[in-house]
């Protein structure tokens, strides 16, 4: 295809260099992310590169082969990510990588490929999926005072009350921060009725990203009540895995947490805040709008083998309504023991 060739990418330095040099690369294209997912979950990674006639890389597609007895299997670009997908210098390179991905799926007997960002392939088996998610991102203000004024009036009042309270904030990557973050996150998702990811996933990402990932925790009298694990990528902070205890809402701990993260990220040299994605019509979607973030629609791509249906991993699906209600009632120790076995298959 236009003199291009596609082959598995085994040169770690070449992978790093291509991601570092591409303006559209995300942390989910990085070798650090892909290797962390494989290390923590056991899902095999497949990375393809497109090469020009001179042997230079002109495209990249990292995939994870997600397998689950409950949710089925898929090739996902990339596992546990909200972005990623095809990364290419041209439409021709993107098309060549998409063709390689579908050929791999056929050879492995995998019924589906999920691309969560990047160029959207066209052709047999490929379809676009939109109207489900929106992303929220905006520039950070010049200083803490301007940041507060950038928040709409009603939400700003909540943030002010949180700032006037006795809540304290800690940041770091040490064992204590990791322990507190996981306890809070596990409690939060149990209360939402969904299984928690393995703790090894958080550790692997923190270890893989080094100083480009950390944890910020809000404490009430020393007791952790809200916590978020964030990624830092090219001047953008991405609060990625966050949650709060049952007391967090009453204490306005989430308001304290996200405003503190904006200030913390600016001190680290960030100029942009990526609030992540949310499903349309949900509470998190409305919450991010309340902070003054405008939603932008996200369009993903999926390939399906003939006669196959997309795997359903949406906890809001009617299919899982009973399971979600039951999960909320599980003791936390049981949810934390069983949850990672289930959640690792969500990908």
Description:
With 347 residues, the chain is α+β, with helices and mostly antiparallel strands. It has 2 domains: 5-134 and 298-343, Gcn5-related N-acetyltransferase (GNAT) (Aminopeptidase, 3-Layer(aba) Sandwich); 135-296, Gcn5-related N-acetyltransferase (GNAT) (Aminopeptidase), CATH 3.40.630. It is 38% helix and 29% strand. The chain is built from 12 helices and 13 strands. It has helices at 12-21, 31-41, 91-108, 144-150, 153-164, 175-192, 199-209, 248-251, 253-267, 283-290, 321-327, 332-343, and strands spanning 5-8, 44-51, 57-68, 72-77, 87-88, 112-115, 126-139, 168-172, 213-220, 223-233, 236-244, 272-279, 295-304. Strands 1, 2, 3, 4, 5, 6, 7, 8, 9, 10, 11, 12 and 13 form a 13-stranded mixed sheet that branches. The longest helix is centred in the first third of the chain and has 18 residues, at 91-108. The two termini are 31 Å apart. This is FemAB. Pfam families: Acetyltransf_6 (PF13480). Residues 156-289 form the BioF2-like acetyltransferase domain.
